[in-house]
Amino acid sequence: MYDDVAVLVFTVRPQRWPSLHIELVDDQGVPTWYASCGRSPIPGTTPPFFWLHLWWAIRVVEREWGKPDVIHTQDAYAYRVMKCSRHLGVSYVVSQHWTGFLRRVVPVGMIRQFRWAFSQAHRVLPANQNAAQDYDYYDIEASVHWLPNALDTRIFKPEPPLRREPWLLHASGFAPQKRFPDILSSFAIVVKRRPDAVLQIAGDGIGRPEMESLARELLSNASFRFHGFLSKSQLAELMRRSRGFIFPSEFETFGCVLMEAMACGCPVLTTRVGGIPAVVRESEGLFVEVGDIDAIAKGMLHLLEGTHGVDVEHVSRETRARFSREAVGRILHEEHLAAAEANSSPTHRT
After folding, report:
1. What confidence score (pLDDT) does residue 348 get?
2. How many CA atoms lie within 13 A of 24 on its CB side?
3. Is residue 345 predicted with pLDDT exceeding 50?
4. Which of 61, 111, 147, 322 could potentially form a cystine with 125 if both were Cys, beta carbons 3.0 to 4.6 Å apart?
């Protein structure tokens, strides 16, 4: 939207033949190189081939697209990318989304890599507004600026639905930290008071069969529906028709689906963990403690009955203004400009 961008996607193939495959595609106007290298035929000797081919792929992009002003990389990739592109003499910006810092589960070897990469980066841009505290825990120094995830306001917007149904909605991949069983247990309490209520569930993942089985144990078949994976447009339509979005997660670096629901005018019930309070500010949603089934059930009833007290129109406007692609894109652009200006070497891209 604001910068001249090229993308390199680099992966390792399972085949044991260490050759570089690289292909250029046009991704909505963005030149994108998909590169991969195979594993070494000798077990335990793949890393040198990985480093060599990543360096080679970076050289291919430089030769075909030009020398960048800034390289923007992410999380654990940063260490490898920065090591393999030092010949360019450019500045680095690093995005950080991984939940490992928030959960305090960063392996020792990775701590050393993050410590070096973050110290070399002009700026680290975490999705979690409180990430600096997580870095301090590991004695990692970094120049930090919060970078929220972006919202597609063309899709997630408060178009008037035909009607608000007595539905509550949840969307996730059913990872344990989403605490979906808490939603089912709470909703089992709710349907005793509101037998017309229906729990709509969007998403897919390895835990889905187990969660469907648990839903059948706790609820009647008429009171829930698993939709599976939905497109963003389909999810937005469910958000506009539901009376509340339920997301009592145990930890989150951000919670994209929360801002999407809020943008659609769907009030949310969630927890004050990780980066969620930066997305759902006080008075913008209902908050419960992690695992508090009674509180979740009470909040569900408030959502169904419209007694939640949330000004959904105001929240929708604020959410779309704060997290639009235009707003987040400007943050990125300003960080890229600052990184480029900090680099004294000649550049070829603006």
Report:
1. 40
2. 12
3. no
4. 147
DSSP string across 97-111? --THHHHT---HHHH
The alpha carbon of residue 167 and the mean position of all alpha carbons in its chain are separated, in whole angstroms, by 25
Q: Which residues contact 120 (CB under 8 A, 6 or more apart)?
A: 82, 92
Q: Find the helix packing angle between 180-193 and 293-305, rounded to 10°.
A: 50
Inside any domain, residue 196: yes
| Domain identity same for 314 and 183 | yes
What kind and span of H or E run contains 126? strand 123-126
Residue 154 lies in a domain: no
Task: Identify residue 128 by its one-letter amino acid code.
Answer: N
Give the 3-state DSSP-derived string for 239-291, with helices as H, strands as E and coil as C: HHHCCEEEECCCCCCCCHHHHHHHHCCCCEEEECCCCHHHHCCCCCCEEECCC
Q: Are strands 224-228 and 286-288 parallel, antiparallel or unpaired?
A: unpaired
Same domain? 199 vs 118: no
Residue 164 makes CB contacts below 8 A (sequence gap 6+) with 241, 242, 243
pTM: 0.89
Q: How far is CA 88 from CA 180, 210, 346, in A?
A: 47, 50, 10
Count of CB atoms situated within 10 Å of the CB of 313: 10
* Domain identity same for 196 and 279: yes
Render pLDDT for 118-137 as a digit per residue (tens, 0 to 9): 999 999 999 999 999 999 99
